[in-house]
Structures are given as C-alpha cells and as structure tokens.
Amino acid sequence: xxxxxxxxxxxxxxxxxxxxxxxxxxxxxxxxxxxxxxxxxxxxxxxxxxxxxxxxxxxxxxxxxxxxxxxxxxxxxxxxxxxxxxxxxxxxxxxxxxxxxxxxxxxxxxxxxxxxxxxxxxxxxxxxxxxxxxxxxxxxxxxxxxxxxxxxxxxxxxxxxxxxxxxxxxxxxxxxxxxxxxxxxxxxxxxxxxxxxxxxxxxxxxxxxxxxxxxxxxxxxxxxxxxxxxxxxxxxxxxxxxxxxxxxxxxxxxxxxxxxxxxxxxxxxxxxxxxxxxxxxxxxxxxxxxxxxxxxxxxxxxxxxxxxxxxxxxxxxxxxxxxxxxxxxxxxxxxx
Length: 336
Ligand SMILES: NC(=O)c1ccc[n+]([C@@H]2O[C@H](COP(=O)([O-])OP(=O)(O)OC[C@H]3O[C@@H](n4cnc5c(N)ncnc54)[C@H](OP(=O)(O)O)[C@@H]3O)[C@@H](O)[C@H]2O)c1
What we know:
- GO terms for molecular function: oxidoreductase activity.
- The record marks 101 as: Lowers pKa of active site Tyr.
- Residues 39-306 form the NADP-dependent oxidoreductase domain.
- The structure is a single chain.
- By secondary structure, the chain is of the alpha/beta class.
- The chain is built from twelve helices and ten strands.
- It has helices at 3-12, 15-18, 51-60, 75-87, 110-121, 162-175, 190-199, 218-227, 248-257, 261-271, 283-288, 297-304; strands spanning 27-29, 35-37, 39-42, 65-67, 97-102, 128-131, 183-186, 206-210, 230-234, 275-279.
- Helix 3 runs parallel beside helix 4, helix 4 crosses helix 5 (110-121) and helix 9 (248-257) crosses helix 10 (261-271).
- The chain starts with a helix and ends in a 32-residue tail after the last helix.
C-alpha cells in the first residue's frame, strides 16, 4: 500500500481501535501456548464465611481468573464457590483460569501438595501451579505450614533446594498433564531465577511477584520478559491498609482519566503487559476493580517516579534471616 495512504488511514483510525482498552479478561499469552486473563481475584486474607461469597460474586460479575493457595487455608470455600457457579451453569470449568500454589512444607511432596489443593478446590486440574516461595521448609516440623525451631527461627529444610523442587514440578506436569496445565514460580528475584534456569528443562510460565508503583521490581520484570516468563503482579493496591490510594501521583493520573485510584493501580500492570491480582471481599469493590484503562507514557512516567522516594514492600516472607529475602519489620506477620 502507498505509505502516505497508510498514514492517512492510521491518522483517521480512532485510538480505541488502534489501542483497544484492556478488559479484565484480555488474554495475555503464556509460554505454554495458553493465555491468562489480565485480572484475577485474589483470595489471600479472605476470611472464612466471606471468600465463597466473594468468588461467587466475582465470577457472576465476569471474573474468570481466581488466584488461590493451599497456604491461604480457604481453598475449600473457594472450591464451594466454584462448584456453585459451575453447577448453576454460570460458567464452565474450561472458561476459568485457576491458580494454586505449592506451600513450602510440600517442596519434597509436590504431588501430594497439588492433590490436596485439587481436592479442596473440587476441580480436576489447575491452570497454573506455582512454587509459592523458593524456600523449602521442614515437612515434619512442629507445624504443618509454619514450622519453627526451638530458638523460634523458621525450620528450613536444608536437605533440598528450590531447584530440586522445580525438578519435582517438571516431573509432576510431565506425569500428570491432566491435573496441572502450567507450572511457574512466585517471589523469585533475578538471582533465584538465574539459578533455576541454569538447570531447568521447562521455563516457568509465570513469576508472581509483589508489584506496584512503590515496588516496580523493574529488573525482575525485564529479566522475565527476556526469558519469556509472564509476570503476575500481587498486592497491586498495596494490600491491607495501603497508602497507595492517597498517593499524590496516583491521584493526579486518576483525576486526568476521571477514574478512581484503584483503576490506575491495576491498569499500571496492563501497561507493562503483566496480569494483576486484586483481592476484595466487598462486592462493590470487586465490581469497581473490573474497570481498567489505557495509561499513556506520561501517566507511566509519573507512576514510575513514585518509588524514587523509597521502595516499600507490603508482603514479607515467612522466613527468618539468611534466606536472601528482606527481613520483615517487627510486628508484621504476613505470609502471602
Ligand atoms: N504469591 C504470593 O506470595 C502472594 C503474596 C501476596 C498476595 N498474593 C495474591 O495477590 C492477591 C492480591 O494481593 P493482596 O491481597 O496482598 O492485596 P491487594 O489486592 O493489593 O489489596 C487488597 C486490599 O485492598 C482492599 N481493596 C480492594 N479493592 C479496593 C478498592 N477498589 N478500593 C479500596 N480498597 C480496596 C481490600 O479490602 P476488602 O477485601 O475488604 O474489600 C484489601 O484490604 C492476594 O489476595 C493473593 O491472591 C500472592
């Protein structure tokens, strides 16, 4: 086609056609050939008695991606919700994208860990199974999820490594492809990814990390992009009691687009080609979080300047020192 004619057509084409607004179910490709819906409902800290209603409401409102984990201790209720919506014909299982995670005390028992989640979730398979943290913990310690040594420090399993856990997961997906469609990791830094990739035969489909304008983790995002590993952002709103809703830059961008700050915080990840998880048990917020917009370069620049005032992390790993993770400040006990 004549270049000037092509330019003329482009100049007359509405922006909404050239850059269509993302929706919560915009399908983002994974390295497996499958896709992941752009927005998922988070379920960490969704209390018993609340999480079933939240998942049912979300799916009725159009969400198709639900993020779960054995460690959240609520997968049974999420399973009740899934059973409810599927039995009422609201959705088919194959139209949902369900993620679960292998907990640290199950690193040497991956098949058992997966089966426990499948039973609780009342589903024959998960779409994505993630190693929740790259730190194995003692499977025979003094607590099934959070074992501690006598001195109060975490009971880490030093007889194995996260790389061995990955090999266990590779074997699991090869032997049970009907139970797990893709495997990935969570909370991996570049250092951990390099160690894993040096020995992996399957490149993780995803790395789920804490990600928001106060913790952009650009080096991890760039590394994963180069290796074909999809990023899913967790705690995008800044988790419980977040300061991000009051952030000046976030509110300026929100005002410019006539949307709430939550929309800006979630849309930030779509501009980076990541999927994003938003947790809520409040129906009005579950509805509100569906709204996503296209942020332009100026918006992103503004949001990217926020972390320069000092990086803030909201989720600290449930391990003591010497695991290569930031130490959690006193008084915080989070295990997302
Ligand atoms: N892989 C990991 O290690 C890991 C770690 C952390 C999180 N995650 C996953 O990521 C999900 C999301 O992260 P998160 O739960 O830490 O935090 P988040 O989604 O950033 O924030 C959740 C908090 O924001 C509130 N909220 C939600 N929508 C809102 C809105 N529109 N306006 C105002 N407040 C709103 C929620 O309250 P209400 O519920 O009361 O409405 C809740 O207190 C988790 O649920 C979990 O599935 C994974």
